[in-house]
Amino acid sequence: MSAYQLDVVSMDGPEFSGNVQKLLLRTIAGDVEILARHMNYCTSIGMGTAHVVMEDGTERTAACIGGMLSVMNGICRVLPTTWEWSDEIDLDRAKAAKEKAEKALNDAKLDAEARVRAQAKLYRALVRIGSASSGQ
Amino acid sequence: MAANMKAVKLRIKSVETTMQTTKAMQLVAASKLRKAKEKADASKPYLKTLKDTLTDIAHGNLDFGSPYTKPGTNDKWLYIVIAGDRGMAGGYNSNLFKFMESETKGRDITVLPIGKKSVEYFKHHHVPIYTEAYAEVARVGINDCFELGRLICKAYSNEEFGHIFLCYTNFISMLSQVPEASSMLPLSDFIETDGSREYTKPRDLILYEPDSETVFNEIVPEYLAGLLYSGINVSVASELAARRTAMEAATDNAEELIEKLNLYYNRARQAGITQEITEIVAGAEEL
Asked: Which of B54, B146, B206, B278 has a CA between 20 and 30 Å from the CA of residue B113?
C-alpha cells in the first residue's frame, strides 16, 4: 500500500513526522480515514481515538482531541489540541480523572458552567481510557 | 569603637545571608529558564500552521462572514493581562503595568488578570475585573487556556466587548523583555493581507467538511487558546529571565557592599589597635 507524509504537531511541539499508510480519526462531522493521494481537505477534529497505520503495517493508536486536520498537496497535517500515544497514557490518572468528573456531575448543586467543564473533563478521560485500552 | 565594630560585623553577616538567597534565586531562575524557553518555542509551529489555515479559509471565500472577523459593535475593551505570581523579578511586573496604563488611556476597559500580581494591581486601581478564575499563572494549563479561549469567543459573540487584547511580556533575549499588547478579536488581520502572502494566484481547491465557515468557527477558539498558551509561556520565560538578571545584579551589589564593609571593619580594627598602642606608649612614658 502506498504511503504519504504525516505530520502531527500539537501545542507542545512536534509529536510525529513520517510516512504512514492510513490515518483514521474522529472529526466534528464523523470518522474519516485518510489514504495516500487524498484530495486537498480540511476539517476540525472532534474527540476520539486516532489510528495510524505506519509504512511497515504496524498500527499505533493515540487519544486525539480537538484541533484541525488538513491535507495539502499530498502532505497530511494534524494539529490536535492534545495528542497522546496510547502507550504513553497514564491509565490510572485517566481513571482517577473520570471518577472525579463523575463525582462532580453527581453533585446536584453544581452550577451550569462547572457542569459543562466537568462533562468535558469526563469525555476527555473516557477518550484517554478508551485509547489506552485499544492500544494494548 | 568595639560596639561599632560589632555592628559592622553583624551587618556583614546579614548582607551575606541576603546574598545567599539572591544567589540561590538566580541559580533556580537560570535552570528553570532553559525549560521555559523550550516550552515557549514548542508552540510556534502549531500557531503558525493554524494561522495560515485560517488565512487561507478567510481568503478562499468571497462571501465570508464569520462573527469573529466582523469589527466590534461597541467600544468596550477586554484586556487579558499576564503578569507573574511573585515579585523579585526586577521590573517585570511594573513595566507591564506601566505599559498597560499608557496603552489603555481613555478607554473603557475590563481586565481578565492572569497571575497574582496582576489581580492585586487591578484590584488596587479599581479596574473592573472580568473573572478571577485564573489568578495563579503557574496553575494555568493547556485546558484552562481552551476554556478561556471559548469564554472570550462567547463574550465577543454576545457583544459584551468590541475588542479583545492580550497583554504579555515578550521574550526578546536573555537580557531584554518587552511588554506587548496584541489583538485577539476581531480577527480583522485575516481579511486584510499583511503583504507576507500573495493572494493573486489561483487558489488551491480545498474540500472543507462540513463547510468552511463551520471549520473556521471551530478553529478560532483553538487558535485563541493557542495564542494565550504561547503568551503565558513566553511571559513565564520573560519573568524567569528578568528574575535571573535582577538577582544577578543583587548578588553583585551584595558582594560590593560586603567588600566595603570589610574595609570599614578592618580600618576600625586598625584604628583601635593604634589607639591602644598609643595609650600604652603614653602610659609607659609617664612612668
From this structure: B54
Using a pLDDT cut of 70, give the percent of chain B over it. 91
A78 and A30 within one domain: yes
Q: Tens digits of per-residue pLDDT, B248-266? A: 999 999 999 999 999 999 9
Q: What tens digit of pLDDT does each residue of B83-111 get?
A: 999 888 988 999 999 999 998 888 889 99
Which residues does B contribute to its contact with A (CB < 8 Å)?
39, 42-43, 45-46, 49-50, 53, 57, 142, 146-147, 204-210, 212, 214-215, 218-219, 222, 225-226, 229-230
B210 to each of A22, A43, A44, B125, B227, how far by Cα in Å?
21, 7, 9, 47, 25
In this structure, are A47 and A66 located in the same domain? yes
How far apart are the CA of A9 and the nearest CA of chain B, in angstroms?
6
Residues A8 and A72 in one domain: yes
Measured CA to CA, the distance from residue B97 to residue B115 in angstroms comes to 12
Residue B165 and residue B80 in contact, taking contact as beta carbons nearer than 8 Å: yes
Sign of the C-alpha dihedral computed for residues B53, B58, B64 and B65 taken in this order: positive
Claim to verify: residue A78 and residue A95 sit in the same structural domain = no
Residue A96: CATH number of its domain: 1.20.5
Domains identified in chain B and CATH numbers: 27-245 (3.40.1380.10)
Tell me the residue range of the domain where A25 lies: 4-87
Domain count, chain A: 2
Size of interface A-B (CB pairs under 8 A): 78
Low-confidence stretches of chain A (pLDDT < 70) are 135-136
Overall average pLDDT of the B204-225 stretch: 83
Q: Look at residue B190 and tell me whether its pLDDT is greater than 80.
A: no
